[in-house]
Specification:
- The complex is a heterodimer.
- Chain A is mostly helical.
- Chain A has 15 helices and no strands.
- In chain A, α6 runs antiparallel to α7 and α13 runs parallel beside α15.
- The longest helix of chain A has 36 residues.
- Chain A starts with 27 loop residues before the first helix and ends with a helix.
- Chain B is an all-alpha fold.
- Helix content of chain B is 70%, strand content 2%.
- Chain B has 14 helices and 4 strands.
- In chain B, α3 crosses α12 and α5 crosses α6.
- The longest helix of chain B has 34 residues.
- Classes of the chains: A mainly alpha, B mainly alpha.
- Chains A and B meet through α7, α13 and α15 of A and α5, α6, α10, α12 and α14 of B.
């Protein structure tokens, strides 16, 4: 069974019913030791594996690629990764709650276009930035109302707003590109902290990462999102305001996408309508690679962080190693598929083994 | 659950509802809104700019829609089974470049052979998607997002900086998208043929009906004895085959094919299906609707040009159309759900 993306409320049913034909599930507990607990759970979980893979890749790249382990590399790698990382944060929450948002890159493009036009129109830069964030908030609210309060499927709605917001970006700025942003600001966005090579803006990004991690993992709201993605009915029964939660998520996605749009504009000091186009699929790929289930109910911020950095590192390492760029996207795609297929194959093997053991075991 | 306006015959027409006339059933057609929108768009544009419906104008409209139409038909098959295929743009690109290189390697190759080989390549790529999805039981969205990158990467590796231009292919092949038969462009006739064949398959055959059952409730379909895995695999193979066909036609119609051909097409294709009334969560919709949806989306461009509207508005209008389609679909499903509840209550 393979439903695309998310499900509408009517289609949602309790998870246990879903893997049809896997009757062995109920007997599993008898023969296989109970789920891991304590430290083992943390050290052997999906997130931990992603982090180990990331560490191995970083170490391997540092040892084999001469120029990899240098502040310059760190700087460029992180600067490249920031837009994906930013949008991946709210996207994680959205996908965990069982929805999806394809319009993120278009919101980033729209804010970028708006920024260019407002700045060219002679507005002070602070006001421009505030208005751009507001625009992202409004765009997110638009998605949120349609999805949370009108109950429309998020996949279809955000395909629509993907076209709509990108279209509005074109209407706003057309074919033009605005480049003359304040030099102080643009150089701030590419500046590094001392000799470490870590971009200054990374401080803000880290704060956001921590904020999203705390909200998702340590607040009732965040725990409620897991419940929401796992079973909408159950979430309603335990008193979660489903519509409000979803609406807030889309507000967050819109606002953070606007941030990414602003970052993109200032980093490349160019406001164009096609900025960040295609980023939505890259973000979703990174989030899924980070262990978030497309059906909702499963995932974590540390895992996604590792997923985003893993894709970024591999891409950058291959680029430095003069591997042609064409291989990069093959690697990204393969990683994505392997990361979802491997656990399924592993569990199929476990089940087959278990079934054999049950068959050959002497009757009591 | 398919409480939304399913195309199939309702299970129990409540007593007293049997006298529904042809008009009433026409009004219930899911494709009606998109047909109306298309007619309105064409009528208004033609009224303001008579050149829009000149012979050349119509020919251009049809030519522009051809490739998206074929892709939308294939995508509909997949979406109806509650899956999705995001890799179609990459498949099209690979096949289009493959077509170019076939002609470059063997200029005397019969055109029919090129078509067959291109469609086989597409079908093989579709089968790769389908096998991963059905055997590994992984969501189609994730798998085809992965193969979108993989197929594109293979195309990049294969093509590199190479591009094939119109001059690299035999004249007869390029003529396919210029020549007309009874005033209709040849490649559009191919697309119409594809729509007709698949529409008949979906309505007239047991297998076609199975796809709706699978999309409405996969578990129930399995319990009912429908070979779900085989049918879903078939849907992906046919979708790949059609994307392959679209790829070959792309090579005939457009001036150049290279590493980035077809990039970003996947969302247009899904959008065409959604606008055409195909429910994104499976179980309802028709290939005819999707084909008209594709025609509507591509016609907007020409209409805006004919009306001298700023071309920058085009994409925003497409977005509004998609949203309108989703809202209409929602209203229809709420209404038919209410009707079903009333009918059930009466039967008790």
């Amino acid at each position: 069974m393979s439903a695309p993306g998310t499900r509408t409320p009517e289609e949602k049913r309790p998870r246990p019913a879903r893997p049809a034909g896997r009757k062995a599930d109920t007997t599993k507990v008898l023969a296989i030791p109970k789920g891991r607990t304590g430290a083992a759970r943390i050290l052997l979980g999906r997130d931990a594996v992603m982090i180990y893979v990331l560490i191995v890749v970083v170490l391997y790249a540092s040892l084999t690629i001469p120029r990899f382990a240098s502040p310059v590399t760190v700087g460029f790698l992180l600067l490249d990764v920031i837009p994906t990382l930013l949008i991946a944060l709210p996207m994680t929450l959205v996908i965990i709650s069982g929805e999806i948002d394809l319009s993120v890159a278009s919101i980033a493009g729209l804010t970028s276009a708006l920024m260019g036009v407002l700045w060219q129109g002679g507005m002070p830069i602070a006001l421009v930035l505030v208005l751009c964030l507001l625009a992202g908030l409004v765009a997110g609210a638009f998605n949120g109302v349609l999805i949370a309060y009108l109950g429309l499927p998020s996949l279809a709605v955000t395909i629509g707003t993907l076209a709509l917001f990108r279209g509005l970006a074109l209407v706003v700025i057309g074919d033009n590109a605005v480049a003359n942003f304040p030099p102080g600001l643009t150089s701030f966005f590419t500046s590094k902290i001392g000799g470490t090579g870590i971009p200054t803006v990374m401080i803000g990004v880290v704060v956001l990462v921590i904020a999203f991690a705390v909200v998702l993992h340590f607040t009732p709201f965040g725990r409620g999102l897991f419940a929401l993605g796992y079973s909408r009915e159950a979430a309603t029964f335990v008193g979660i305001d489903v519509a409000r939660s979803k609406f807030l998520l889309y507000l967050a996605t819109g606002t953070v996408s606007a941030l990414a749009g602003i970052y993109w504009t200032l980093r490349y000091s160019s406001a164009r309508s096609d900025n960040a186009s295609g980023l939505e699929l890259a973000v979703i790929a990174a989030v899924l690679l980070g262990g978030v289930s497309i059906f909702g109910g499963k995932g974590s911020i540390p895992g996604v962080l590792a997923g985003v950095l893993l894709i970024g590192t591999i891409n950058y390492a291959l680029k430095l190693d003069r591997v042609s760029e064409v291989v990069l996207i093959i690697v990204t795609g393969s990683l994505l598929i392997i990361s979802v297929v491997a656990p399924n194959i592993a569990s199929a093997i476990r089940e087959a083994r278990h079934a054999r053991r049950v068959r050959t075991a002497p009757l009591p | 659950m398919s409480l939304d306006g399913t195309v199939g015959a309702p299970a129990h027409p409540a007593p007293g509802h049997e006298r529904s006339s042809v008009l009433a059933s026409l009004l219930k057609l899911r494709e009606l809104p998109v047909i109306l929108a298309l007619v309105l768009l064409v009528a208004v544009t033609a009224a303001l700019n008579p050149l829009f419906l000149s012979e050349q104008g119509i020919k251009d409209l049809l030519l522009n829609a051809t490739i998206l139409m074929i892709l939308a038909v294939g995508q509909t098959l997949v979406i109806i089974t509650r899956n999705i295929d995001l890799s179609v743009g990459s498949i099209l690109g690979l096949v289009a470049f493959g077509t170019g290189s076939m002609f470059a390697a063997a200029p005397d190759l019969p055109i029919v052979v090129v078509f067959v080989l291109g469609m086989l390549l597409g079908a093989a790529l579709g089968a790769f998607n389908g096998l991963l999805i059905t055997i590994a039981k992984v969501p189609a969205l994730v798998i085809t997002l992965g193969t979108l990158y993989i197929f594109r990467g293979i195309n990049n590796a294969w093509a590199g900086g190479t591009q094939y231009f119109a001059g690299d292919r035999p004249q007869a092949f390029g003529d396919l998208s210029v020549d007309t038969f009874l005033g209709f462009p040849l490649i559009t006739l191919i697309a119409v043929g594809v729509v007709a064949v698949v529409a008949v398959y979906m309505f007239g055959t047991r297998q076609g009906r199975d796809l709706y059952a699978i999309g409405s409730d996969p578990d129930a379909a399995r319990l009912f004895g429908i070979p779900v895995t085989r049918r879903v695999l078939l849907a992906f193979v046919v979708n790949g085959l059609l994307a392959g066909l679209a790829g070959v036609l792309y090579a005939s119609r457009f001036n150049s094919v290279g590493a980035t051909t077809g990039a970003g097409l996947e969302l247009d294709v899904v959008a065409a299906a959604v606008v055409g009334g195909v429910a994104i969560f499976g179980g309802s919709g028709t290939v005819l609707g999707a084909a008209i949806g594709a025609l509507l989306l591509t016609t907007i461009t020409s209409a805006l040009t004919a009306l001298r509207v700023d071309k920058f508005w085009q994409q925003a209008i497409v977005g509004v159309l998609i949203l309108a389609a989703v809202v209409i679909d929602r209203i229809a499903s709420v209404r038919s759900a209410r009707k079903l509840r009333i009918a059930e209550a009466r039967n008790v």
